Amino acid sequence: MILRAVLLTCALAQAGVAETCRTDTVYLKGDWGDARFSVEVADDDRERAQGLMHREHLPGSAGMLFVYDRPQTLSFWMRNTLIPLDLIFIDQTGTVQNIHHSAQPLDETPIPGGSGLTHVLEINGGLAKAMGITVGTVLRHPTFLATDARWPC
User: Phi and psi at residue 11, in whole multiples of 5°?
Assistant: First the structure.
């Protein structure tokens, strides 16, 4: 029932994909369709270290977007994270390069995302598969430079 409500929320959000870019919203599109998530942006060391730790709930149409200044190899873990998450690893063009589905809460095993990455989008675990989000999906957000982005603001 919760998954159905999340999918409906994301489907209803699809109508707004053409809206102006906002820092609190990320847009996704691919062969599977398109969607919009409300996001908190973690773009400094303190915010990235905190992430979604200690939270007991994440609304279905929400997430956290981790932003890095330069392309690099990224690896995450689930220390002190209480909810399962999908980790979507993205390069500087806004293209999804890797997805780790349903990372287990409180697991400190490193989750490698790959190299050449500038962003990671965390959403509720299982949602990426349920929506059909795949490698090659493109994101739109103001933190992607217009000169690099495949889908610029």
Answer: -65, -40
Instruction: Give the closest residue to 29 by CA, choosing from 16, 42, 47, 43.
Output: 16
DSSP state of 28: E
Query: What's the confidence (pLDDT) of residue 20?
Result: 86
Residue 107 confidence (pLDDT) above 50: yes
Kindly give, in sequence order, each residue whose CB lies less than 8 Å from that of residue 117, ignoring residues fewer than 6 positions away.
68, 71, 72, 73, 74, 89, 90, 91, 97
Averaged confidence pLDDT in the chain: 91
Rounded average pLDDT over 45-52:
97
DSSP 85-150: EEEEEEETTSBEEEEEEEEPTT--S-EEEEEEEEEEEEEETTHHHHHT--TT-EEE-TTS-TTT-S
Cβ atoms 37, 28 nearer than 8 A? yes
- Class of residue 101 by CB neighbours under 10 A (exposed 0-12, middle 13-18, buried 19+): middle
> Hey, is 79 helix, strand or coil?
coil
Of residues 113, 109, 110, the one with CA closest to residue 121:
113
> Percent of the chain having pLDDT more than 70?
88
pLDDT for res 81: 98
